[in-house]
């Protein structure tokens, strides 16, 4: 890909969409960087597609029902509790 693939007007347009003010020296630098990025995408386009069926398997275990903890046991290790509930720090 040639360096002029991305022109300064396009860079200014993208910068405007992103609400970024660019100096003239930055526009030239970004044009070069955008060209490099586009060249990398062109390289990715050259990667051949793979045609195969995906061997997918469900790796999740089924839900199992268990008795829940008693309130006192659940709050045993809580740093603070109040009226049978976990108590966290105040958020301001």
TrEMBL record:
One of its GO terms (biological process) is translation. Keywords: ATP-binding, Ligase, Nucleotide-binding, Protein biosynthesis. Its EC number is 6.3.5.-. InterPro entries: Asp/Glu-ADT_sf_sub_c, GatC. GO terms for molecular function: ATP binding; glutaminyl-tRNA synthase (glutamine-hydrolyzing) activity. Pfam families: GatC. It catalyses: L-glutamyl-tRNA(Gln) + L-glutamine + ATP + H2O = L-glutaminyl-tRNA(Gln) + L-glutamate + ADP + phosphate + H(+); L-aspartyl-tRNA(Asn) + L-glutamine + ATP + H2O = L-asparaginyl-tRNA(Asn) + L-glutamate + ADP + phosphate + 2 H(+). Belongs to the GatC family. PANTHER family: GLUTAMYL-TRNA(GLN) AMIDOTRANSFERASE SUBUNIT C, MITOCHONDRIAL. Allows the formation of correctly charged Asn-tRNA(Asn) or Gln-tRNA(Gln) through the transamidation of misacylated Asp-tRNA(Asn) or Glu-tRNA(Gln) in organisms which lack either or both of asparaginyl-tRNA or glutaminyl-tRNA synthetases. The reaction takes place in the presence of glutamine and ATP through an activated phospho-Asp-tRNA(Asn) or phospho-Glu-tRNA(Gln). Heterotrimer of A, B and C subunits. This is Aspartyl/glutamyl-tRNA(Asn/Gln) amidotransferase subunit C. It comes from Natronoglomus mannanivorans.
């Amino acid at each position: 890909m040639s360096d002029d693939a991305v022109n300064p007007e396009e860079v200014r347009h993208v910068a405007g969409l992103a609400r970024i003010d660019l100096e003239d020296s930055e526009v030239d630098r970004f044009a070069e960087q955008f060209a490099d990025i586009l060249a990398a995408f062109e390289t990715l386009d050259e990667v051949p597609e793979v045609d195969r069926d995906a061997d997918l398997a469900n790796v999740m275990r089924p839900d199992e029902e268990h008795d829940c903890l008693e309130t006192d046991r659940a709050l045993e290790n809580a740093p603070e509790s109040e009226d049978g509930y976990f108590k966290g720090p105040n958020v301001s």
